[in-house]
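User: I'm writing a tutorial on reading structure tokens. Could you give me a worked example: one chain, its sequence, then its tokens, then a sentence or two explaining what the tokens reveal?
Assistant: Sure. Here is the example chain.
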Amino acid sequence: MTIAELLPPAVEPVTLAEVKAHLRLDTDDEDALLSALVRTARQYMEAETGLCLIVRLLRLYLDDWPEGRVIQIARGPVQAIEMLTVYDDFGAPVDVSTAGYVLDGAARPARLILPERPATARAMNGIEIDFTAGFGESGADVPDTLKRALLLHVAAMFELRGVLAAEDQPGAVPVGYDRLVAPWRLRRL
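And here are its predicted structure tokens:
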């Protein structure tokens, strides 16, 4: 199972103004760096938790249908299933109707049951499920604890700006970050 991002989020969960207020910055001198650090902090948090903070389009690739009826989607919260594609014997994509699917998008991982599961002729990545996932369209939809963790992380990375380049971040995870993010982490055995 592989999940690919088809479209990046339209906005970041925290605005530049929120970051500058948190850091008590008044000038625009560091805006480009701060924007890069916000993106880095979001990507780090999403990788750590399996969440999508802002709604975007993703694609789940499966080699074959799971043995049970339930398809698990590790990124969430899943808002909707957009498209389902399988491949015929000639390698051509075949769109499958998604009408009648049952989705528990808030579960961790999200759970999907399809009314039909047509066979695919492709041995690898023969099933593609496009879905939208995220808390909402703007930072206002993101839980406050996650936004607070992002601001703490950006501040810690901003402190290291003379030591590490923006592309080498995150250089540190601040004290308290783990406690804020812990309820959102997906634990596995």
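What the tokens reveal: The chain has two domains: 12-52+139-184, 56-133. Residues 31-49 form the longest helix (19 residues).
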